[in-house]
Amino acid sequence: MKLKLAPGVLWLIAGLAIEMASAANILFLSPFTSYSHTHVFFYSIKALASRGHTITHWNGLKPREDIANVTHLHSASLQKMNSRHEIGFNGNNPIGLMLTLPDRLSNVCKAVYREPVFHQLITSREHFDLIVIEAFMNECMLPLVQHFQAPFIYLSALPPLPWMLDYTCSPLSFQQFPALCTDFTEEMNLPQRIVNVFLNVMVIYYRNWFILPRVDQVAADAWINSTVPLSSVKEIEKNLSLLITNTHPVINYQYFKSALIVEAGGLHLVPPSPLPQEVETFVNGSSDAGFIVLSFGSILRGASMPEATRKIFVSAFSRLPFRVLWKWEDESGMTDLPPNVKLSTWLPPLQDLLAHPKMRLLMTHGGLYSNQETVWNGVPLIGFPVFGDQVNYVIKAERDGYAIYLNWITLTEDILYNAIQEIVNNPKYKENVQKLSNLMHDQIDLDRPLDRAVHAIEYVIRHRGAPHLRPASCRLSPIQRESIDVTFIYTAVLFAFIYLIVCIVRSAFRKLSHVVKVDTVKKIQ
Ligand SMILES: *[C@@H]1O[C@H](CO)[C@@H](O)[C@H](O)[C@H]1NC(C)=O
Ligand SMILES: *[C@@H]1O[C@H](CO)[C@@H](O)[C@H](O)[C@H]1NC(C)=O
Ligand SMILES: *[C@@H]1O[C@H](CO)[C@@H](O)[C@H](O)[C@H]1NC(C)=O
Ligand SMILES: *[C@@H]1O[C@H](CO)[C@@H](O)[C@H](O)[C@H]1NC(C)=O
């Protein structure tokens, strides 16, 4: 009997041989960051280190834990800048934020270039096989890409911002991808689409004309002694190999993407660990009613909530049959706390809580991670968006039928109480989120989003960049890429044609009426 290997097995063996990327030296740069943005870095770095790569990570925040084979570069002044982004429960106006962005970014860049870590890096003469940069407000790291002559990747904790679609040469998806910080959905009417196009285009050009030149200015000062002339950051960015985003089509509105975008939304999702004993005892003791959790994540201090709002939560919770776990950073606690509520300055990872069989509901500001975690674990949510992109995710979650959007400014005790009762007792919320959860667990290519990200990163290392993935339309401006120039020409031609026809018809009529007039005159004579 002959032993025959199925072709599939051969491919598998060949695939494994290709898969083994030799150990690489990778530089991760996220001097400007927040606790939530570091998530995508932490998990990617941990996975890459365990595969034998050597990693240097310059992060603006202290690492949560030391990882073997990872060198952390870190400094106290960046820690201070990154641990308070001045996000509060009051008025976070996206337009105001946008207008101050050039100044903010220029200050960030100045601070970053002053760091000893930066000077240590540029004098190190180290060879890096790849540089990974956090995609939001770290443009001043781009000159390092030129300095080290390494391929580079952006890793983003956010869905693509308009300029990210632009620099990956993706279609801008104006017609269905609402701008962040708006309450538009994927189904926009004409006025909404007009605003959406305006916002997207405006933001792209605003960055090109006002933000990036500021970075160039600051960079030129910092690199004044460099022997090689510094390219503009816009120019360096054109060598981008990939953008890995924290999006997933089950959670985020869909957008069209070029091959430069790899979606790895939920790469931080890991199998749950058991809860600490104290928490387990509290949540497990919640009878059949189960427990619910209120947490505003890491960037917002729950304890900075206005007193009137706090009272609403306390009185609504006191009427509920569930136990409530509340992340409250103020050590002194509350005097009016009902017995079914437990305050905690620190909560175990949300993923562990969400995986608990008695978990009924998460109440949250509605950030992207909590959205992914609730869907992954099949738990519905109530969202109180506070700033930025949160409103987009909560509105989408409500449309998808697994969430209730509450405006915390108009919140009353009854609204809150009824919303909680509705979401826990009406089975449709749980059913909808379970359906999405099944979809999210059913990923076709590689096992998990993290594997997808690791594969993408090692792919770029193996091939020393990925210029072959760049669409030819990268040569074109956004206007050309969206064929707006062509549409304009067609419109002009159409109008010229219509005008011509009108002219011909008019002159024909004139002639005709002249002939008729002459005829009648002749007859009368
Ligand atoms: C560190 O890298 C080495 C190879 O360079 C590898 O054998 C080892 O498993 C890595 N350690 C961890 C904890 O990932
Ligand atoms: C440039 O070099 C001069 C002389 O070596 C030095 O004094 C100065 O601090 C350097 N500037 C920067 C920005 O590194
Ligand atoms: C872009 O990459 C090419 C090829 O690696 C390199 O020659 C060029 O200098 C890079 N451009 C910039 C601005 O770094
Ligand atoms: C949870 O409570 C049940 C009884 O309600 C008990 O049988 C179980 O051991 C508890 N689990 C833990 C982990 O404490």
TrEMBL record:
Stored Pfam families: UDPGT
Keywords: Glycosyltransferase, Membrane, Signal, Transferase, Transmembrane, Transmembrane helix
TM regions (residue ranges): 488-509
Organism the protein comes from: Daphnia galeata
Listed GO MF terms: UDP-glycosyltransferase activity
Name under which the protein is recorded: UDP-glucuronosyltransferase
Domain of life: Eukaryota
InterPro entries xrefs: UDP-glycosyltransferase (IPR050271), UDP_glucos_trans (IPR002213)
CDD domains per the UniProt record, alphabetical: GT1_Gtf-like
Family: Belongs to the UDP-glycosyltransferase family.
Signal peptide: 1-23
